[in-house]
Design a protein that fits this description.
The complex is a heterodimer of chains A (about 300) and B (about 100).
Chain A lengths: L2 E2 L6 E4 L28 H23 L4 H13 L31 E3 L4 E3 L1 H11 L5 H6 L10 H11 L4 E2 L7 H15 L9 H5 L4 E3 L2 E3 L5 H8 L1 E6 L4 E3 L1 H11 L10 H13 L4 E2 L2 E4 L1
Parallel strand pairs in A: 8-11
Antiparallel strand pairs in A: 3-4, 5-10, 6-7, 8-9
Chain B lengths: L5 E7 L2 E7 L22 E8 L2 E7 L9 E7 L6 E8 L4 E7 L2
Antiparallel strand pairs in B: 1-2, 2-5, 3-4, 3-6, 6-7
The chains are: A alpha+beta (about 300), B mainly beta (about 100).
Chain lengths: ~300, ~100
Amino acid sequence: MIDIKYPIALGVTAALLVMPPAVTAGTKRAAVKAPTTKAKPAPAAAAVEKDAATLDFEKHRAEMEDASPAELFEAKGEDLWKSKRGLKNVSLAESCDLGSGIGVVGGAYVGMPRYFADADAVMDAERRIVWCMVEKQGFNFAEIAKKPFASGNSAPDQTSIVTYVAAQSRNMKIAVPLNDPRVRDVFETGKEVAAYRAGPYDFSCNTCHGSDGKRIRMQNLPNLSKPEGAIIGVQGWPGYRMTGGLMLTHQWRMNDCFRQQRFPEPKYASDVVTALLTYMIGTANGQLYKGPGIKR
Amino acid sequence: MADPMKIRATSKDGVTEVKVLMSHEMETGQRKDAAGAVVPAWFITDVTAQHNGKTVMQAEFGTSVAKNPYLSFKFKGGAKGDKIVVSWVDNKGDKRTDEGAIA
């Protein structure tokens, strides 16, 4: 509760978004329905309901984006990027090349995934940052991979660094170098992964994200196979998730969708995640990236 | 130590709008952890904002305020370049003060 005592204040708004974090892991499983369900909702009613809720949420999101808590992680990430850390006591700013030269962060996020000769691999932003932390700063990969994403009351360092780096591409056009045959190859792999059906429900990413107008509960599912849908899947990541108040990366989104798909979760910073991100971000090429965002 | 706040302030037609983002867990004391133990309450109790050394806003926060709270308020006066200082104190006595300038 907010109790304003001071009379000079003319108007006060505070984020009264009380969305307590999931209490225990596993209790908040999404109730996912196969989107091919035969029951047809009464079309008019369903459409109206969806619009009202969507509009309401968008209004709320616009307010939140005005002062997104993602900025707190951005600030923390900047500090981490510039500090000497790890066994080798060097900063990423003086050792890490995100594609445009050592320490260059402006525009780097929208240019990844890309091929990095020093690692001889195509890497997405998070993977590249982790690679730099391990190779340049001397952090231990196994340690990082133990708790790779935010949960409870903590966000891993690389999440903040990714947020900082992503913010330096705010309002820039997505430009994954798909004309590089190595990147194109990974893109094609990602496209195949998105179409690969398996698991107890025989789901692929495309079951939920391969055509227009699908949704689960209140969530509209972007059609990742088209540029207009792919950008929705890219926009706002890394994102501050209001549910639980967690800062989460695009890699996290991939892992959580594998879980929704009833697949085993991929290993942290692995090829399959880079492939999916290359497919998705590459499909969104040429569109404007607005920077770290807010998710429900 | 707590992480820094983000403070943004803009002045227009004699009114200054201040937007503050605070980094805080804001634990309600109502949740239980995986082992079933209550997670102790931990939240900001008081927020104060000063413009050029004069208090222009004072608020009491409680457990219904979200994690990483966002607060915006307006006050009469303020000019470009003036200093805005915001401080908070939590129920454990931890505190944080940061400043920003009116743009």
